[in-house]
Amino acid sequence: MPITTCVFDAYGTLFDVSAAARLAAAGPEFPALADRWAELAAHWRTKQLQYTWLRAIANAHADFWSVTQDGLDWALQATGLDGDPALRRRLLDLYWELQAYPEVPGMLEALKAAGLKTAILSNGSPDMLDGAVKSAGIGGVLDAVLSVESVGVFKPDARVYALVGQRLGCADDEVLFVSSNGWDAAAAAGFGFVSVWANRAGEPMERLPWKPAHVVADLTGIPALAGIR
Question: Can you give 69-138 as a three-state secondary structure string?
Fold first, then answer.
């Protein structure tokens, strides 16, 4: 089947999750962060994801904003930066204004110009996603922003991926699904999507039963993978 719909994970795929720590470290207010921001950002992201998986397994759902705060608190303590409440507030505020990767706006515009549907499918809560989409200025080139909150469980639960067909009326094999998380791209392939792993960090392939159809370094080539020439 030809691709009719392109669906993107949000955090780490369209939006740079390291931007909050990087921007907070750029100013003079938090000198202790200057040499630790990359470590903090890595810990924060890892714990954020781990808590979504653990909550899904334990049937103990909380919205992504709660998970994001818990992950940050762990990361701040792990890096010895947990003594400054102003730093915590600044990091959380910046998470609502994450920067999109440079290629994202033009890539989405190319998909829409070719008549394809575009959407986000994310663990993010609706208000967080609304803030990020508005900050990045990409709302006009998205047909839908889908949050796991409508099913009350995080990825990679199949009920999350099923939201795409339910909301956009497309068959699974018409969907090009793009994620920067190898496990997410793999699970989406297992669900039946044509999946793309945006392997920005050059990581090894996940040892899972399913493999993404494509692996790319960034999102520049997504229109070509969707069949746009």
Answer: HHHHHHHHHHCCCCCCHHHHHHHHHHHCCCCECCCHHHHHHHHHHCCCEEEEEECCCHHHHHHHHHHHCC
